[in-house]
Give the backbone structure.
Amino acid sequence: MFAKVLIANRGVIARRILRTLRRLNVAGVAVCSDADRNALHVREADSHVSLGGLTAADSYLRADRILAAARDSGAQAIHPGYGFLSENAQFAEDCERAGIAFVGPTARQIREFGMKHAARALAGTCGLPLLPGSGLLESVEQALTEAGRIGYPVMLKSTAGGGGIGMQPCADEQELRSAFETVRRLAHSNFRDAGVLLERLVQRARHVEVQIFGDGRGEVIALGERDCSTQRRNQKVIEETPAPGLSAALRARLAEAAVRLGCAVQYRSAGTVEFVIDTEREEFYFLEVNTRLQVEHGVTEAVLGIDLVEWMLRLAAGEPLPRLPRDVPGGVAVQARLYAEDPARGFRPVSGLLSEVVLPQGLRVESCIEAGSEVPPYYDPMLAKLIAHAPDRTRALDQLDAALGDTRIYGIETNRDYLRAILHEPTFRLGRHTTRLLAGLPFSSRTIEVLQPGTHTTVQDWPGRLQYWHVGVPPSGPMDALAFRLGNRLLGNSQGASALELTISGPTLKFACDAHIALTGASMPATLDGERLAFWEVIAVPAGATLTLGAIEGAGQRAYLAVRGGFDVACYMGSCATFTLGQFGGHAGRALRSADVLRIGEAQHAVPDPVTVPAALRPRYTHDWDVAVLYGPHGAPDFFTDQDIRMLFSTAWEVHYNSSRTGVRLIGPKPQWARHDGGEAGLHPSNIHDSAYAIGTIDFTGDMPVILGPDGPSLGGFVCPATLALAEQWKLGQLRPGDRVRFHPISPAQAKAALAEQDRSVRELRGVPPAGTSPATPPAASAAGHVAAPTAAAH
């Protein structure tokens, strides 16, 4: 066995090969592009070599750099995995010429099977059944002539490459004319070969492949067949072994044909002979040979109890052809490919930061991701493969479905729910599916696409992240919790369900499914497909509709958009609230951006009555605010003068333009201060040694008061003469630059009564605006400096 092997690949397959190398006690050398420098396969390898570049063409397809990496690292062999250089005959030759073993077939075999027209000819000489087809086509006229001979419909396909790229069904002459040059260009762009050919298109086809393995000296064995009929646009999505519904005789004929073809060329290493089965004619035909390890090789390994990567390595090291174990596990194995793609938007590949990754336990999972992984836009979007293995097909499908249900990936969209829809499709469950199944599969994604994000739109929940204040993590959450809670209450959500906070101007959102929403808070012009919407009531949104929210009209600073079921985002430290300064929570730890996709959670209850907030309960937004506060803990005479305290409660403070969720700054007169400096805490009299903050505390930072917001710090060094009562803190979220604010003190008893009344009115959606917030007599100035420090729980 080799001492060191270089893996000329990335992601899922690179980690898969590393797993086998570790078990064999062989050192693994990873290569990486600049985009993958922090990838899991790089960190887990014994050593790595940077190839530079971002795209595949500048990194993983640079044979010269990979060979240099192998030489410099002392690797004795290169395993190419699948894709990239795995079927590049010149690269295989270059490896052998450099004295480095290529873990795969010979260069001659890659060439013989690499071009579909040549593979067809070779298969024909071996007596394998072939679909009526053509040789290489030089012109569209020749293509039309051949199609007339074969009979429509036909499949126009590139002779080079694989993975479903460069294949186009053509139902008639017009479609063939239209597709001819397009497929040629696509083939040349992807495979540097513009050769194309035609084959008769089987309307009700199954795609079945046979795994073969040869020793390069004439012995070839078949390792069972796999059904790969579950395809979307010729790309495999779910694979399984054994193929359901085949007779024992047909299985034997498929295996015999594959072995016969492999023996004809003295095939070496792992390969796959692919067939199409015409379900109407009950006949099978040769398609092509993949001279590499397949993405779906894991299902074969599961039912046979083998490791194909180990087999490939041992054969490349000169060891004899491995044998099957005595006790083959048997059963059924099914694999699902988890992709970074958005099914609701034409399966568009997506990229971005993964804020949370939860992969299932209890079955084989091959992945390349973890929380914090960056999914780059330059490569195949596969994130993971989930492989279920059970005694029978029903139990294997159920196991895979449960595993997908346990899979949680946040930050980007995936095809997880689409895979689950396939597993529940009746025809698929019966094993009677063909390659056309997914073309007619109904699927609705419970998502909302962000077309325009608005000024500052974030996901929040209530009451936010409360348990970590002592270590400096603020609660975040909605800045106007009253409007937020009322929106959720309308929809039958829990009051704390995740919703959107919209600041100054709102987003434009497109719904992929039917939904119910509620808009609350400051008034924004809102339209649904051009029709104006009202705030404070339940709105039904049909699938495909576009919701547009403009800039706030009149008073107030923030509006809220709640959706029935809430938004399905990752919890971080016990909350879904976005803390943008910390870059965690919500959607990817940031404000929304164009092209983001939000998932809608499952509703727990029916939409309740009433479906509007009574007018009497709707908060009033103004430019002149009166806010109830509790006096202290830092008052007169220790910190402020009596005149300063009178000034605090008599001044109409102006909201400063530099205000945010961290805090609202106020413009007004300067205090006279009862002391000359802060003593050991600092030169300015506003300084004080670490003083616990609470949301809504009015802190003097120098001579300017700041009302601490939900994203502010937990400890500071500034005095606090008053704190907003909890029932009044919603007003903090609606203060906008230029507004005027007056404060009046109330007693703790009044604050508690006001909060209880507010909670009751939100819960029951009836009553009157909270009472009991009329001014109270401030505590005596002489005692003000000794009032207990305010806390969020108390106020």
